[in-house]
Design a protein that fits this description.
CATH superfamily: Vaccinia Virus protein VP39
Number of helices: 11
Structural class: alpha/beta
Number of strands: 7
Helix content: 25-40%
Radius of gyration: 21 Å
Shape: globular
Distance between the termini: 69 Å
CATH class: Alpha Beta
CATH architecture: 3-Layer(aba) Sandwich
């Protein structure tokens, strides 16, 4: 594992962050997330085409930006994002919760928990998080940290799964467990909605926040292909309230039998993602007009448009 020191924040800052984090509900078991990603490191190559498709769509937004970027932070890019940024000539530090995934990176890499960003303010021009935010307990706190480590007028790019991703699997598992056990336990990570993502950017203080919807269409020969991808991507159940132990084969077979399959037995599975962009505030950015600064009233504008 390689490390890259960009400088730690002050002790007071860390104390404040730790106090804030202690008050945040712990929905996800971060230790389990790390173990899942460690175990999946050897098979991560199997799901990299999916990550690469998401990363390509996300990084395409850089082509529409006239600003240049010299330094970037890749948060959990699974060996896809950092090389893509370096290919653009951007010096990039890769990070991951998994030591094994960090060890596979060919450039500077930091093994860290993505909920805590151990970097000094204004360390990076660009921060990218591709399909790596949905296991974070304190997402508003993390986005505030991202804004802190960006230089003024620095760019944050992220994509994360949103509803209705895995909705069919979630309902199938609930129905199967209710039928067999008379009760249910959480098995699929809860995802936010698109509006939630836009609100998170605004809450964190980003300028010009945008959250667009995008869909990556996937298809599996059998439902077991979907389960394999979740396992090989380190995406198996890491909810703190999950039931411990292996899922009974009968329950799993019952759930998979409830999924809507094509005539040939294949399973269509769409990955719905929010493509998020936000800028670290800077005086040079366009500012909205204040009340009273408009040269024409809304009423007059509507009248002119409707003679």
């Amino acid at each position: 594992m390689r490390s890259h020191d960009r400088g730690l924040g002050s002790g007071g800052t860390w104390a404040h962050i730790m106090t804030m984090n202690a008050e945040v509900p712990q929905i996800f078991d971060r230790h389990a997330v790390r173990l899942h990603r460690d175990r999946a490191a050897a098979r991560m190559v199997d799901i990299r085409p999916i990550v690469a498709e998401a990363a390509t769509r996300l990084l395409d937004r850089l082509d529409d930006v006239t600003r240049s970027f010299g330094t970037a932070l890749d948060v959990g890019g699974r060996g896809v994002v950092a090389p893509a940024l370096r290919a653009r000539g951007i010096a990039t530090v890769a990070t991951d919760l998994s030591p094994r995934l960090c060890g596979q990176d060919s450039g500077p890499a930091v093994c860290m928990d993505g909920e805590w960003l151990p970097f000094a303010p204004h360390s990076f021009d660009l921060v990218v998080a591709c399909l790596s935010l949905h296991w974070v307990n304190d997402l508003p706190g993390l986005l505030a940290q991202v804004r802190r480590i960006l230089v003024p007028d620095g760019l944050f790019l992220a994509c994360m799964p949103v509803l209705p991703t895995l909705g069919g699997l979630r309902h199938a598992l609930l129905e199967a467990e209710m039928a067999r056990r008379g009760g249910v336990s959480p098995r699929v990570s809860p995802f936010p909605g698109l509006r939630d993502c836009a609100g998170l950017l605004q809450r964190a203080g980003f300028a010009l926040p945008v959250a667009d919807a995008d869909v990556i269409h996937l298809s599996y020969r059998t439902p077991f292909g979907l389960l394999d991808d979740l396992r090989h991507g380190g995406e198996t159940n890491a909810l703190r309230q999950r039931m411990r132990g292996l899922t009974h084969p009968g329950l799993l077979a019952d759930a998979l039998g409830r999924l809507p399959l094509a005539e040939d037995g294949s399973l269509a599975q769409d990955l719905h993602v929010a493509m998020m962009t936000g800028w670290s505030p800077a005086p040079t950015q366009p500012q909205p007009l204040q009340p009273g600064q408009f040269s024409i009233s809304l009423e007059d504008a509507l009248r002119r448009g409707n003679p």
